[in-house]
Amino acid sequence: MANRFKGEVAIDCEGSRYTLRMDMLALAAFEDATGENALSWAEAAEGGQAAVGDMIEMIRCTLARHHPEADYRLAGDILSEDPGVLLRLFRAASPELAEDGPEDGPGKPLPAPAAG
Predict the structure, then answer these.
(1) Mean pLDDT of the chain
(2) Region (Disordered): which ranges (predicted)?
(3) Which of 7, 26, 76, 93 could share a disulfide with 61, CB 3.0–4.6 Å?
(4) CB atoms within 10 A of CB 37
């Protein structure tokens, strides 16, 4: 049986609880918004090669399933609150990453974005 590419992470931000969902719809929305290949971007982001604006856009896209009213500002607030949320989303969506990678607790940031 094939693994489904879908993962969810819940986060509290400014007194509210949000559920981010990394699935094919979120990836497609990210591609539409940025023109980038989402899977290639995610791989680069895990290595610290992601622009902050793209990270915020990915968060916005992963909020859309459960919070369609979410905007870029909320996504930025969530990323500021918990810089490690994208890494946890990648791992939740791809169980093989969670099995192979080191344990990271909430709030562990992604490597610093590349300057550019």
Answers:
(1) 84
(2) 96-116
(3) 26
(4) 13
- Mutual orientation of helices 38-46 and 24-34 as an angle, nearest 10°? 90
CB atoms within 10 A of CB 92: 17
**74 vs 96: CA distance, rounded Å:** 30
Q: How far is CA 101 from the centre of its chain?
A: 16
Tell me how far apart the alpha carbons of residues 28 and 66 are, in angstroms, rounded to a whole number. Answer: 16
> Is the separation of the CB atoms in 104 and 92 below 8 Å?
no
Helix runs in the chain, H state only: 24-34, 38-46, 52-63, 72-81, 85-93, 95-100
Residue 110 backbone phi and psi in degrees, to 5: -65, 160
- Backbone φ, ψ for residue 42 (5° rounding): -60, -40
Please state, in angstroms and rounded to a whole number, the distance separating the CA atoms of residues 81 and 96.
26
pTM for the whole structure: 0.78
Burial class (CB in 10 A: 0-12, 13-18, 19+), 107: exposed
